[in-house]
Write a structure and sequence with these properties.
- The structure is a homotetramer of 136-residue chains.
- Chain A is mostly helical.
- Helices cover 65% and strands 0% of the residues of chain A.
- Chain A is globular.
Chain lengths: 136, 136, 136, 136
């Protein structure tokens, strides 16, 4: 996503598709209209997030890392990947809503924690888990 | 999430934690500062989303559906679940940004498609996949 | 699986379908014939195991725990679940073979370790992770 | 796994660690001793398989495909990967047993079906899903 795209998106109002809480309200209404709340407990929603994450990943399973970006050059595959990414987001947003988790705030807290765990000086250019970052 | 919570969140400005594009800009900056873009191709990010989705689900694996909500009554577990939900979101948001997917728009499109696939009259109170919804 | 089924299966020779190494030889031959070894590195195989595990789980996502056994009463669903379970096994067996892991021995070692982590006296009737088993 | 390793393993008797049914009997006894059958319904076991598959995959998430084999050169990582592979197998074997699925037979059937879906002439050297294999 280019800087420009990010700029355009963040310039939109809180009613836009980019606002988590606005999207959550739509997702919850969709489930409520169909009386699906009875199925959508935290356990089942967490399962559903993982199922959809598996489907998203499926598009990349045999591709070499360096060719992974080219997977999206195929229009049909791009549409499928977009739909799978949307599915993960829809269920994750509903999970957070049902659990009473403020997802945006949780993300901010986790980024702050990651900044402590992965100081730039230590983590730069290294894909090493935090618990091994300070070894050797 | 109560109506009230949703109201408070959606009333905040586009600079708030609830805006996907704003969060994506922070996530991309975090990765760029650590020169992690080399690892964060679509394949690896899709894998990472699925790994974190598994960790989120782990908290619910032996719990009965009807007790799943109570899992979050334990403060330590709630914090862990919030962190895992944040991890899934962070990686999914980065995946979308790296792939040039407008996640909010993709969600809106998928909800519209789901509305066609699951008409209220047919889907009410039934957890049946769309391809079997019109059978028997 | 009844005791009887287990008995019948374990009475068969090492050439039977129940022997992991025999199955691995067939799986490796299948991949080699199609020159798929180039795609089947440990990373891609681990991804594939997780994708198939997601598809297996998909059949149970909205079902209540106590109704989960009844899912398999439907003949079509049973066949699909069997195929998904087979897919997970095929890819896991290939993963182990490609990594040089003796899966049977690894299972035996893990069961021995679990026996230490989950002593009967402490773990009986409790679905609690080992690191919390000794708390309060 | 070298041909030699496979040979050694398949030469062992049906009582060896390489026999699925023998391993299933041990796994079921382990769960029964702890009165865990109440938690181990098909839904929860399918979830658990997917959680463990995610943990297995976690070891490879930032690694380039061509370096994936080298991950196992590190002794500590190899042990961890072996344990995760064992966890997936243990839960998958228990899942099959609880569902009354003969896993070995299911694998043989799936391999036969895959042989039809992926004829050598069409599939050689190509990592393309069967439903797209006959296109263009």
């Amino acid at each position: 996503m280019s800087e420009q795209n990010l700029g355009v998106a963040s310039a939109t109002s809180s009613q836009s598709a980019s606002d988590i809480a606005t999207l959550q309200a739509k997702i919850l209404a969709f489930a409520a209209e169909r009386e699906w709340q009875q199925f959508h407990d935290p356990k089942n929603l967490a399962m559903a997030v993982a199922v959809e994450a598996g489907e998203l990943m499926d598009h990349f399973r045999w591709v070499r890392s360096e060719e992974a970006r080219r997977v999206l050059d195929d229009a049909r595959t791009r549409t499928e990947v977009e739909e799978e990414a949307a599915d993960v987001a829809i269920l994750l947003f509903e999970f957070a809503a049902v659990c009473g988790i403020d997802l945006g705030a949780a993300i901010e807290r986790k980024l702050a924690r990651n900044a402590e765990r992965y100081p730039v000086a230590l983590a730069k250019g290294r894909a090493v888990k935090h618990d091994r970052l300070r070894e050797g």
